[in-house]
């Protein structure tokens, strides 16, 4: 069934977080199932254009927000574009909840009788709802109408679906993980030589956005307590500049200061080199509804140490496919120590993680789930929703 599918999102700028990366992966899904996919988004060049320029599977329409209305994510120009584009499509997929892109997108879809899916990308999680709590509560009727009209609320993990706050609406909840392909890794020895890492060192890697919720101060403390004299910690990524400055200062005060590296933002080839060089991928986050970075490490066969606040942990723990720990100094240090000294445990987790991710995150697997969901939505929504 070939459909015309319109995706809407407030931004796909590099600094917009995991939503932009998710759109890139979902473009692969749309191509795999044979849909004709379009994307309407706001032109935010100040947020970076690397991800936008690498979305070949979407026909992209950029809306240039006005100086004032742009603060509300679009205004009149966005409304005009959606009124023109929505009737030309069979299905709409809204990304995000708390902006006019989704509110107007949902209203326009309902007006023209086009079913829509709503992908909150963690924004309905209790952890995330704390941000701007007052405004979100005052504007609850807007979010409620968008949620109530959705054919389905798409979440990347079962825990996200269970915890999602829907402001009194009762949408159908579905779980659809993001697809992650196995990265093409360079030779391990060559990667380490290029990175200036000793062949015998054990490397702990964090790769992702520098953000307060990522548990990076804790990771520095855990590494300092658990690492041997030759071990290396790599904290790769960009984001909150002030936080990064504090992390550098904290690392400089540790006994292992000369073995903590901050390479900054890395591209796909750089991430592949880091994964090839790594012995452990670590994410001691306060909250993650999915974690693409963890999924990439699993697919690369890198043993993962994650906090129980990473929602993938529920499934991974059942398969013994990752080391899961509370985001606390004592338990996390014990877990990292065990991984660093026990090569057999690392080998087990590498194999189990690769197998789990292949079974659940492979593009073909995710695409087939999406195809079935869309088929059901298209067959039932005209009677049950509209």
From TrEMBL:
GO molecular-function term, one example from the UniProt record: hexosyltransferase activity
Domain Glycosyl transferase family: 187-355
Annotated Glycosyltransferase subfamily 4-like N-terminal domain residues: 17-178
Any one GO biological process: carbohydrate derivative biosynthetic process
Keywords tagged on the record: Glycosyltransferase, Transferase
Protein name: Glycosyltransferase subfamily 4-like N-terminal domain-containing protein
Protein source organism: Actinokineospora bangkokensis
